[in-house]
């Protein structure tokens, strides 16, 4: 499975961005997919993700209420809508996939994307 992220950029605090992650190589309809991020000098942290069904969607505490995860299984694509961005959201955002939501959540997924930079200036 190859994961390709897009949609990162540089924005002002309070702005919005939408990240996309397109999967190829095989269908990921039955895979848990989500996003992690890593800021300079910090460990990678879970941001948001779901099992194959969006009914089981999880968020990191720092983004809950501002970020929305969604997936379009027909397009093998997942999204991260980020609203009310803050300077502390500045990080490289990585898309991830695994057949188990637990491995996705704890940061040991089978597949990672290459990452996309999000920079938020205050």
Number of strands: 11
List the total number of helices: 1
Taking pLDDT < 50 over at least 5 consecutive residues as the criterion, the unreliable ranges are none
Mean pLDDT: 94
Question: Tell me, what's the shape?
Answer: globular
Q: H/E series, N to C?
A: EEEEEEEEEHEE
Overall description:
- With 122 residues, the chain is mainly β.
- It has 1 helix and 11 strands, in the order βββββββββαββ.
- The strands form 2 sheets. Strands 2, 4, 5, 6, 9, 10 and 11 form a 7-stranded mixed sheet that branches. It has a 4-stranded antiparallel sheet with strand order 1-3-8-7, with no helix packed on it.
- The termini are far apart.
Q: Helices and strands in order, then pairings?
A:
Elements lengths: L1 E5 L2 E4 L4 E8 L7 E7 L6 E6 L6 E3 L7 E6 L4 E6 L8 E8 L2 H6 L4 E2 L3 E6 L1
Parallel strand pairs: 2-11
Antiparallel strand pairs: 1-3, 3-8, 4-5, 4-9, 5-6, 7-8, 9-10, 9-11
How would you describe this structure in keywords?
11 strands; mainly beta; 5% helix; single chain; seven-stranded mixed β-sheet; 122 residues; 50% strand; four-stranded antiparallel β-sheet
């Amino acid at each position: 499975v190859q994961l390709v992220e897009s949609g990162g950029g540089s924005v002002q605090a309070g702005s919005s961005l939408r990240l996309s992650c397109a999967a190829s190589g095989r269908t990921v309809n039955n895979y848990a997919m989500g996003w992690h991020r890593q800021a300079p000098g910090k460990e990678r942290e879970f941001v948001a993700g779901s099992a194959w069904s969006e009914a089981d969607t999880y968020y990191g505490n720092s983004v809950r209420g501002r970020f929305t995860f969604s997936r379009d299984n027909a397009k093998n694509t997942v999204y991260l809508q980020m609203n009310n961005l803050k300077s502390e959201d500045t990080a490289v955002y990585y898309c991830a996939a695994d057949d188990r939501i637990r491995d996705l959540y704890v940061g040991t997924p089978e597949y990672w994307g290459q990452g996309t930079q999000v920079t938020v200036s205050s």
